Structures are given as structure tokens and as C-alpha cells.
From TrEMBL:
UniProt keyword Ion transport, yes or no: yes
SMART domains per UniProt: CBS
Record keywords: CBS domain, Chloride, Endosome, Ion transport, Membrane, Transmembrane, Transmembrane helix, Transport
Stretches that traverse the bilayer: 98-116, 181-206, 227-249, 255-271, 283-307, 357-378, 393-413, 471-492, 498-517
Protein name: Chloride channel protein
Domain CBS intervals: 635-694, 727-784
Feature: compositional bias, Polar residues: 24-37
Lineage: Eukaryota, Metazoa, Chordata, Craniata, Vertebrata
Membrane topology qualifier: Multi-pass membrane protein
GO terms under cellular component: early endosome; endosome membrane; Golgi apparatus; plasma membrane; synaptic vesicle
Principal localisation: membrane
InterPro entries assigned to the protein according to its UniProt record, in alphabetical order: CBS_dom (IPR000644), CBS_dom_sf (IPR046342), Cl-channel_core (IPR014743), ClC (IPR001807)
Entry similarity comment: Belongs to the chloride channel (TC 2.A.49) family.
Amino acid sequence: MHWEFWTKKLDEEDLIENGVYEESNGTSRTAGMNGNGPSRLVDPLEDPLPGVGTYEDFNTIDWVREKSKDRDRHREITNKSRQSTVALLHSISDAFSGWLLMLLVGLMSGALAGGIDISAHWMTDVKGGLCLRGFWFNHEHCCWLSNETTFQERDRCPQWQSWAELITGKSEGPLAYIMNYLMYIFWALMFSFLAVILVRAFAPYACGSGIPEIKTILSGFIIRGYLGKWTLIIKTITLVLAVSSGLSLGKEGPLVHVACCCANILCHLFTKYRKNEAKRREVLSAAAAVGVSVAFGAPIGGVLFSLEEVSYYFPLKTLWRSFFAALVAAFTLRSINPFGNSRLVLFYVEFHTPWHLVELAPFILLGIFGGLWGALFIKANIAWCRLRKTTCLGHYPVIEVLVVAALTALLAYPNSYTRMSGSELISELFNDCSLLDSSQLCGYKQPANTSDTGVDNSLADRPAGPGLYTALWQLALALVFKMMITVITFGMKVPSGLFIPSMAVGAIAGRLLGVGMEQLAYYNHDSVIFKGWCSQGADCITPGLYAMVGAAACLGGVTRMTVSLVVIMFELTGGLEYIVPLMAATMTSKWVADAFGREGIYEAHIRLNGYPFLEPKEEFEHSSLAVDVMRPRRMDPALAVLTQEGMTVGEVESLVESTHFSGFPVVVSSESQRLVGFVLRRDLLISIDNARKRQDGIVSASQVVFTEHTPLLPPDAPPPLRLRCIMDLSPFTVTDHTPMDITVDIFRKLGLRQCLVTHNGRLLGIITKKDILKHMAQMANRDPDSILFN
């Protein structure tokens, strides 16, 4: 998805984000005899070294080591807290810091989301005209203040003028229509051009949804700069521009990325999170919940989304903190009140008519449609994105965005349902027609007398009028347009979410089916299906409910969300009684889509980009053994190892330079191959470089020692370099006959980077996360070389 992996500029702040390794044992270490009498050798890790214990870009963290570091740190703080009042206060502040961080993440994300909502609403309206009272008012706010607005035409007022009125002085006629059309295309091209140029120039990582990368980062992968301050600033600005341009995309997915950027930046204020990658990922899991909370005004749905869809490691403590952060974010957004209706979302609706058991059949039908659309969309979008990556199309991202924006604007303007923003369209489709509603979707033939009206100002089922028939064919065209244009829009080099376009497709299909059911009930209320629960003059069918169920089904088909999706939808609508229809449609949608492929859209993009993501939901169904997957293979050169003593600094450096491995096993000797431990390449290089600068006498001929006691050396030998402290003395090992399904489970549950394979205690080989993913790809008849990173 990101063509700038190799050309990006690293964020200076992110270069040091991993902090410094803290040594848990503060005692000084002394060396033994080296022939010249007892002398104190400098241990390169006696003082914390910048860089040791950190990770290189595009590498996976060691979850076990990070958790162990945090336990040591916590144990040290707890022991010190019993010794003095100052230490006790430090212990309390350390325990409270997590909650304070969650408060700050919630406040910052809520404030940014409110700003994005207000700006996007205003800029979307600017494509249609300007407010004479003040250009900063959007269409709705401009007409609120007018005394000349009628209920039937509440969107028309003298204070708001279209571009045709401002330029030509005419509001009607062919000239006015063409002028408005041209201005609509001009603004769409202007906003999309600014969005793609800003992304390309300042923050290449600000494009796309962000959720596939967030999922990969939460699984332990490092992508420096992806959650940096420049990405946050540019993503926030370009998200407003992209949504306002009228492209078929939403802001909900990118808001998760924005919230995670806020969390990552705020982590730098707290040592506990700045210096520990595993602890930071707990905060990012909570931030993902905050992103959905502010996107949909659904705090509980956000927590469940983080748990079900994006998080890899989600302890109970993170659940509570996610809940608190989502609550703070929702409260902040409610205080800003971006939509001016005291709601957290644009399309909040309330239905009054209960559903009937017979309606489960059309709800399940919508679920089948959602599943089919989801499977089709994933295959088409991935094929298009692969085409973009492998052809010259990917070399011209600016031209691609401008062409798609021009095509979208050109085709969208003539149809009022594609001209409006995605959120407004969904709001219109969810709407339940009342007596005074002037929408085209409520263009029924009016009842002869008012006794036909139902309760709560809602209307009994009525025959469709000309206005409704016009709306229906416009919606049918809008459905085809949305389905096709979303395929090529998602994955372009602008911020693009998928929630709103998917929901719009489902809501259109649902509304069409709902109106069909309503007319069927009206003309056949005496038939077996409707008899007994839908009498003449009753309000039996709610088309808006069908739109809501269709929206959930299509979003479920694309993302494969279930529990979190249902909760988000009922938080949106405030109706608990519609949980069963939503559950039926969502579950059907998932089953149908899974029949064509188990991957959701985010997992498909992770695989497309070659990220090392071990999908927790995917079962390993093959009977391989560890010896079948480990490296080296039969015809490969021997495994590169270090011996615990006997190698010089020069030999170690030449071994490291001649290979590209992330780490090296340490053995007793080349002959015995008995395993001692494992040392990371980065730690080894930093320690040797530091020892050459800080320790007298360390030269290429100096012996590297991984043992506890320094061996006896000749009198004229240079002092040895002790590196036992950077060695992992308890690396994870499996035997050569361990089944691969157990090995894969160990990697998933413990978050391992690598695992060593032994036979009767002798080292045979190594299995990395990348090896497992390559093996799984091979077993599934996919290209194993598509896994790019370790």
C-alpha cells in the first residue's frame, strides 16, 4: 500500500522512541585474571547504553523480553517504595500514569475528531455555495439563523447562495446548473489534489485507512514514523480534504489511525511507555477503541472493536483503560457537539415500530447480499491494488487521485443521492418518514384523511407516489455507482476509510428492499404472510430499519466484524429491540463471505503488503514438523553461530557483516553445538562499538566472552570483552519433532520473534516468524516470497 517504504524520512522523535535498555541488576561486574594480575574490566552494559534492547525498523519486537523488562522495573519500584516516602510517591505516580495517559489520549482524540467533523461538514457544503452572513457557516447553520426558512424547504434561505447565484445571479435554468456542476468538479479536484500532494510531500504514511498497519504494529511489528507527529498533522488535514472532495471514502478508519498517533506521541511523556514496546502497544490497543468511539459515537462498540478486530494482546487491564479512554473521548466529542444536534453522530435515528418474525427472512436476505458484496469487494479491490503495485499506475499517485476524483464528481453530481456526502446519504436512508417529511424517499400518495396517520407522527403504510419512484431508480443507480467506485478508491494515496462507503452500499440495498416489503404489505395485507400482524392502515414495515440492517450486513461482509459491529449499530440507533435482526444479518453476512475466503479486507491488505502478521483466527491445518520449517535446510550452508569463548572481536564483526540475520545463537563450541543462549545483532554491534570507545585495550584481537567467568589468557593478550549481559540465557526452544501447529500456537500466544530447534540439547536450526508465514503461504499455494519483512 505504501510505495515510500524505501524512501521515507524518519521522524526524529521516532528514532529514539524505543528508549534505553534498563539493566535490572545494578551490581558491578568484575572480570577475572588475564595474566597481568587482577584488573576491573568495563562491562559495556554496566551503564545503560542508548540503543541496546531496542529494535531496528521493519522488525518484530520480542514480547517476552519486553514483559520481563517491565516486571523487573515494577519489582524494583515496589521494593524501593518500602524504603522512603519519596519512593512511595513515585510508585503511586507510576501506577496512576496509565490512567492519566488514557485521559490525555481521550481528550486529544475527541478534540481532533470534533475539529475534523466540523471542518469536513463546512468544506463539503462549500462545493455547493457560500453563506453571505459569514463564510465560516455551513449550509445548515447558515439557514438556522434565517427567519425566511420554511419547514418544507428548510435547506433554502436567502443567506445561503449557490455558486451560480454568486457568479451569474441566477438560481434556476441550464446556465445555473452548468455553473454549479463545474464549481462542484473544481472544488472536488482542488481538495483531492491538496490531499494527495500533502501526503506525498510530508507524510507518506498518512494515506489509506491505517487499520491494516495498526493491526500489524499491535502484533509487535515496528514501522517507524507511522505513528509520528508529522503523520498525525498531515492525516488530520488531508482527511478533511479527502472526505470533502466527495470521493467514495469515510473518515472512520483513519480516525483509528489518528487516535493511535495521539497515543504514541503522548507515550513519550511517560518513561514506562516510552522505553517499553509491549507497554506502548497496550496503550495503542486502547487508542484503537478511542478511534471508533469518536468515529461512531459508540464507546462500548469501540472497546469491542479493539478487542475483536485489531488487538493482538489485550489483557484485562487494557479492557478497563480502553473503556475509560473511550468514555473520555465520547464525552469530549459530545461537549464540542460538532453536528449541533446533541448527538455524537450525524445519522442518529429512532424507530418506533417493532419488527415481526416474518421480517427475519428479508433481514437474512440482506445478510446474504452483504456477504456476497463483501467477498466480491475484497477480491476486486485486492486485484486493483495489486495492479497498482505491479504496473506503472503506482508511479503516478497524484494523477490517479485526480482522475478518480474527476470521474466521481462528474458521475455523482447529476444524482442527488451520490452528490451528498456518505454520512448524509446514510442519514437520509435510515430516516423514518413522518407526516411533515419533505424528502423524496417519503414521496408517498397522501392519505385522504388524517385518521390514517399512525402514532408518534409516523405514517401508516401508503402506496408509493411519483416522488418515491423517482427516488428508487436514483438509488438503484447510486448503488451501482457506489459499488464500482469504492473498489478503485480504497487504497489510493489519500486517507480513505471503508466503513461509510460499505454502510452506504448496504443502506441503499436495504432501503430498496424495505420499500418493496412495505408496498407488498400494503397491497397484500390479507395474504397469509401479513395476516394477523399487518392490518390495513397500520404502520407495519419500517424501510429505515431495513437500511440499517443492510448497512450492518455489508460492513460485516467486508470487515468480518460481528459482535462489535452489532453493538456499534445499536449504539448508533439507540434501539435495543433491533439487536436480533442485526445479529441475524451480520452472522449470515460473515458465513456467506467466509465461504468465499476467510480473510477480511484488512487481513487481505496486510498480506498484500507482505507484513509479518500471524493471524490469530487462522487455523494451522497441516501435519508438518519443526524440522521441516527450520533453517538451515538440507542444501543450505551451516547455521551462523557464536561460541561462548574463543572468538575474537574481529571474527564476530566479520560474521555479523557477512550475514543479514537479526540474531545469533551462542553455543559451547563449534564441535558440541550445545546451546547456551541467543544474542541480537543490534545489541551485539552497539556493545562492541561502545566497548571500543569506552574500554581501554579492546581491539580486533580481543576475545569475546559469553561465560560468567573470564578464561585464563596469555600475559600479552589484550583484555577480553564480556558480553554475557546482552545474551538471552533462556531462549525458547522446541525439539525437531515438535508439530508445527504447536509451534505456531507458541509464536501466537507468546509473541515470539524466533525459536531455536534442538535435538538432545544440540542446536539444529532456527525458526522465525517469517519462516512460519512463508511455510503457511506455501501450504496455501501462495507465493512465499510475498512475505517481505521479519
